[in-house]
Amino acid sequence: MDLHRPRRKHRLSLLGAGIVCVAFATVMLAQDTSKTETKQGAASQKVQVDRGEVVYVSGNDLVFRMENGEVRHVTVPDSARATVDGKKLSVHELQPGMKLQRTITTTTTPRTVTTVRTLQGKVFSVTPPSSVILSLPDGTNKQYTIPKDQKFTIEGQEGRTAFDLRKGMNISATVVTEVPETVVSQQRKTTGLAPPPPPTPPTPPTPPLEGALLIEAPAPAPTAVAAVAPAPAAPEPPPAKLPKTGSVMPLVGLLGLLCSGLSIGMRKLCRR
After folding, report:
1. What is the spatial distance between Cα 187 and Cα 169, in angstroms, rounded to a whole number?
2. Which residues of the chain have pLDDT under 50?
C-alpha cells in the first residue's frame, strides 16, 4: 500500500488550482488594463508681504507690531530662520527693534488626471442613450455615461447602439476618467534689518546774517626765542671799610712786634 499516493493527489489538485488561478489572473489582466496621464495647466502666483517691528521675544514666542499698528503674537519653530543684514538668525537671536518682512508666495497649479481603462463587464441595467450600469469582474457595479452616437460591439456585431443593450450582455469598453485637481504650494521667506544706531544730536543752525559781514583774522603765531647761555657775573668790588665785625687790635700788635725787632737790630749795630 502506497501511503504517499493521497499526498500526491493533493499536490496535483493544488497545482491544478494554481494553474487555473494564474490563467484566470492573466485573462483578467488582459481584460482590465489602465493608463494614467496628468496634464498641468498654467500656474498662477499670489504674493503676500507683511512688515512689522519686533516688540518682544521670549523663547519661541515672538510679538511684533505691524505697519497698521496691529500687534501680533506668533510661535516660531526652532528650525525657522530670518535673514537679518545678511545673517541667518533663529527666533532666539532676534532682538526688539528689528524690522522684519515676511513674503509668502502661493503658487496654484491646475491639472487634470486622465485615466484610460479597458475592461470587460456585464450589463446590469441600461438607460439608453445616456447611461449604463456594468457589473465588473471584482463584483462591483458602476455607472457610466454613454457619449452621443457611441457604438458598441455586441456578440461580435459592430455598430450597435445603447438601445441594443440588454441586461446580462457581456461587452468590452474603454472607460475614460478625468479628474480635475488643484495643487497649491507655499514658499515663505523672512528678511529684516537690525535696529538703527542711536541718532546723533543735531547740528545747531547757522545764525542769520545781521549787519556787515566781518571775518576774524587769525592770531599771529608766537615767535620762538633761541635759548642763550647767560654771561658770567662780574666779581664784586672789595668793601670800602671793614665790616662792623672787624677790630684794630691785631694791627696794633703787629706794629709793636716790628718796632721791637727794629730796636734790637739797632743795638747790635752800635756795639760794633
Report:
1. 55
2. 1-30
